[in-house]
Amino acid sequence: MRISIRLWIGLGVMLWSAVAQAGEWTTRDALKHVGETATVCGIVVSPVYRPDVRGQPTFLNLDRPYPNQDFIAVIRGEDRAAFGSPEVELWGSASA
């Protein structure tokens, strides 16, 4: 399955907002573009849903598994409905 994840690169590599604009980077290049808006491309290798944590986040670790991931996309619990069960459905998929 091919997916598109468009995220705003904010503080560090934790992402919270789904907005898109010009630019497309690999997970390793994204850190060079903090504060910019773009599409980050990578493979979801270790997704984790944490219903026991405040905000019930889903962490999508891209290209390398936790704790050595190159990039983390975070889906807040309130946004999970838009993604179905991302920890299952997006595992192993490429984002672009």
Please give a structural write-up.
By secondary structure, this protein is mainly beta. It has one domain. It has two helices and eight strands; from the N terminus they run E-E-E-H-E-E-E-E-H-E. The protein has helices spanning 27-30, 86-89; strands at residues 2-3, 6-8, 24-26, 37-41, 44-49, 58-62, 71-75, 94-95. The strands form three sheets. Strands 2-4-3 form a three-stranded mixed β-sheet. It has a three-stranded antiparallel β-sheet with strand order 5-6-7. A hairpin with an 8-residue loop joins strand 6 (58-62) and strand 7 (71-75). The protein starts with a strand and ends with a strand. Residues 1-21 have low confidence and may be disordered.
Number of strands: 8
Helix content: under 10%
Distance between the termini: 11 Å
What are the segments in which pLDDT stays under 50 over at least 5 consecutive residues?
1-21
Shape: globular
Counting structural domains, the number is 1
- Largest sheet strand order: 2-4-3
**Mean residue pLDDT:** 77
Give the structural class: mainly beta
